[in-house]
Structures are given as structure tokens and as C-alpha cells.
Amino acid sequence: MSDLHVYDTTLRDGAQQEGLNLSVTDKLAIAAHLDDLGVGFIEGGWPGANPKDTEFFRRAQTELRLKNATLAAFGATRRAGGRADSDPLVRALLDSGASVVTLVAKSHVSHVERALRTTLAENLEMIRDTVTFLRGEGRRVFLDAEHFFDGYTTDRAYALEAVRVAAESGAEVIALCDTNGGMLPAEVADVVADVLATTSARVGIHCHNDTGCAVANSMAAIDAGATHVQGTINGYGERTGNANLVTVVANLQIKQGLELLEPHRLAEATRISHAISEITNVAPYSRQPYVGSSAFAHKAGLHASAIKVDPDLYQHTDPKAVGNDMRMLVSDMAGRASIELKSRELGLDLDGSDEADAAKVAQVLARVKDLELRGYTFDAADASFELLLRRELNGGLPDYFDVESWRVITDSRGEDDALSEATVKVFAAGERVVTTGEGNGPVNALDHALREGLSSAYPEIAHLELVDYKVRILDTEHGTDAVTRVLIETSDGSTTWSTIGVAANILEASWDALLESVTFGLIRAGVAPRRG
Ligand SMILES: [Zn+2]
């Protein structure tokens, strides 16, 4: 394995993207995916400056079990004129529990004087004091030199001095930031080479994509000797985004032979990129290099028959290396390997070694592809995928209850907020139960009515809680004929799971996802069907 750092800043810099809003739960889920991808470092946010980020680090300590990655807390050097050991924001970085602290510091004279409004000497002292203090507290320290490239152009000596001071104080990496994103690859390479020649720093690179060169600039920096690369999943970030970390890593690994991620983890990149899109609710960019659904798609015709002869004639690399697929729309969870792996996890015992197993896997695969054509996606609906496997491989699901009917009405009176009321009729434990539920929206009302209706047969589900609800309209060129995809996340207080529903009608899609959620909750709790 290469010792080059793969440093993800999706949760901090990526979250600056317009329209992207992450809850703490979303951030924890994304961090788990990043860890599965095998990145070395996950920057979780700025504890102390942002209450949500403080909460993220607090919950991460108990809820996130990282296998590969190390969490990094981001924060600024101490205030001008103060002391690091009594600075509340520096304290918050220690309190976050993160073993790596990434400090952002100024290295551009105009930013020091006009934005920070302090002296050039005091800025260097802020770097020295803060890095030294955090090192003394046992933290690994990385330093993001903000506006470095522009600062280097304005005053090379000062920019280099900031790097030197940080390195001599114990910062392990100095990441040179193209904060305004205006650089081109050749310039980046020259500056990185100069920093390496004139300081003792380990150099990292942090690029924004304003010239469309964030990936190229990151690659140029690494060619010039940088050994730490920062970026975000799907290139999320302010303005035109940050360097797309998956593209950078795939380029380095597949084209240049640097092993940054274990190959079986890189082969999860497509699935993970899409799963994270479902969490951010930002539609996946189909033309994204390597992992986009069009990245290896070919038009039919002349091409197609030649592709059958030798696919390598028409693709720059094997799509399987990044978990993508040629020609087909990506079938993320549907890979044979995922099906075998998941079925083993569930104790359904499919090792794929004999013909009967192979036939079952093929049957599940066909089912998944069929559902995907209708708008389902299983990358972000782990519980629905598990139910599908149980249905296909285990001869069906436990028969907990039957639904006779449901309906929901929403009315608005005068100035008051609209209220919804649902009626659900179910058979469970030998009884027919009719219940109503109210809610501030129709799905909320249906959820209340359904769980109320099942509560005497299955008191185990009383504490389930709907914690997130996401809607996406698919195939919008058909206007109102579009189908609606609903993703629901449910919590039992200690774990969460996601289910999916797809239908032309948004309430029907929501209802299907609710039923799956409750069924999964009962299976998870080990409850046997009570038919009365
Ligand atoms: Zn940035």
C-alpha cells in the first residue's frame, strides 16, 4: 500500500455546497460509507464553531465504528493576541475526541492583514502556538494553508515561512490550499516542488474546481511530490466543487499503479458514491468519471456488436475496478458478490459454489434489475434489500399482519396549518383493528395509525420512530406521470434502517416503505408472527 494520505472532507468542505443540508444522522451514515471505501481520514466538521459538528463528534464516539479511517476535527488557529491553551475553540477541538486535528491557517499576507486584521508576525505565532499546544496534548496535527497559491504569488517568502513554522512546530502535513480554485496544473506543480525543496514539510494538496482543474491540479501536486490529497465524494463543495476524491484515487490507482485503497474497496466506489447521493439527496451526476451511470455506457448500433467481441476496445479501463458496469444502468447492490455477501450475513447460506446457489443468485439479480428499472434503488435502502433477499431465498417473509385498507385526508381550516388524519384497517393476532392517526402530514398520520393498529398484537414496535423521509421524483420528462421514490429511515433507539417504496402515487410509495419498515423492525426484534 502507498503511504499517501487519502483525506476526505465531504462532511466539512463538501457540505458547503449550495442546497446540501446534512443532519448529524446523515453525516454519521456518510462517514460509515467513507470508511467502507477505505479512505484514511474523514474530516467530520468544525466542533465548537458549529453545534451540529460538536454533536457529530460526540455521537461518533459511540455510534461510529471505523474500520479504516481516522476522524479529523477541523478548526482555526487560536485568536490573535490570545493563547492556544485558553482558546475555547482550540479547546473544543481537543474535546471532540478526534486524534487528528486539521488547523486552517493563513499564509497570504493580504489575508493576514485585511481579513484577520493582525500582523504578519502574530499570524506566524498563532500557527506556532496552536500547533505546539495540540501536539503537546497528544494530537496529530495537519495544517491547511488557506489561499496558499495566491499567497505564494503575492509574497513567496511569507507563504513559505508559514509552512516552515507549522512544520517545525510539529504539524505532520501542510496541505496547500487552492481556496479560490483558480490554479492550473503546471503552476501547482511548480509551487509544490518549490515548497518541498525549501522546507522540511510533508506537503498535501486541497483543490477547488473553479478552473475545472481540481482533479488535474491534485494529480500535478502528487506528481511533484505531495503525499496527502484532500477531496470530496462526488466533488461536492462550494461553487464548482472540490476535487472529486474518487476520480483522483481511481486515476492514481488504476492509471499510475499507486495502491491507495485495497482493490476490493475501490470496487465499491460506484455503490458508495450513489449511496451517498441518496443521503445528500443530490441527484447523482450520470457523467461523473468512473462511477457515473453513463461512465461506461455505450450507444447501441455499430458499437454494440463490436463491444461483444472485445469490450476493451471501447473502454479506457475495466469498469469492475470501480464497481461500475458497462452499458447497463448501474445495478449497485445487485452485484453477485454483494448478494452472496449479504445472504451470508443473514445466515441464508449462499456461497455460490454449486449450481443451485448460482441459480438462486441469478434469480435475485433478475428481481433486483427488474425493480431498478421501475425506479427502486437498494444502495440506500439496506432493510428493503434484506427483505427482498429473505423473500426470494427464504421462501417469503414472516406473515405478521394483513392490511385491509388505508386512507388519509388532509384538511386546512382558515389560518391554521393543514392537518392530516389517516384510517388504517388491519388484521393481526386474529383481530380486525380499525385505527385512526393524526399527523402534521399524511405520511406521519399513516405511520401513527399503522403502529397504533398493530400495537396490541406487537407492542415491540411502539418505540419505533420515523427519523427521516426523503422523496425523489424520477423520470421527470413525463411530468405528472413520473414515479415517486420514497426513502424512509426508522430508528428503534439504538439502530436505524432504511426502506424504499416506489409508486406513481406519493402516498402509496410512502405506505409501501412504511410497511417494509415495520416488517423489518419486527424481524430485527426477533418477533414471531402472532396470528391469534
Ligand atoms: Zn476548501
From TrEMBL:
Gene3D superfamilies cross-referenced by the UniProt entry: 1.10.238.260, 3.30.160.270, Aldolase class I
Keyword set includes Lyase: no
Please provide an example of a Pfam family that matches this protein in its UniProt record: LeuA_dimer
Question: Which SUPFAM superfamilies would you find in this protein's record?
Answer: 2-isopropylmalate synthase LeuA, allosteric (dimerisation) domain, Aldolase
The pathway entry for this protein reads as: Amino-acid biosynthesis; L-isoleucine biosynthesis; 2-oxobutanoate from pyruvate: step 1/3
Instruction: Name the EC number(s).
Output: 2.3.3.21
Per its record, the protein catalyses: pyruvate + acetyl-CoA + H2O = (3R)-citramalate + CoA + H(+)
Q: Could you tell me the keywords of this UniProt record?
A: Amino-acid biosynthesis, Branched-chain amino acid biosynthesis, Isoleucine biosynthesis, Transferase
What the entry lists under NCBIfam families is as follows: citramal_synth (TIGR00977)
PANTHER family cross-referenced by the UniProt entry: (R)-CITRAMALATE SYNTHASE (PTHR43538:SF1), ALPHA-IPM SYNTHASE/HOMOCITRATE SYNTHASE (PTHR43538)
Q: Which family does it belong to?
A: Belongs to the alpha-IPM synthase/homocitrate synthase family.
Q: What is this protein called?
A: Citramalate synthase
Which organism encodes this protein? Nostocoides vanveenii
The root-end lineage is: Bacteria, Bacillati, Actinomycetota, Actinomycetes, Micrococcales
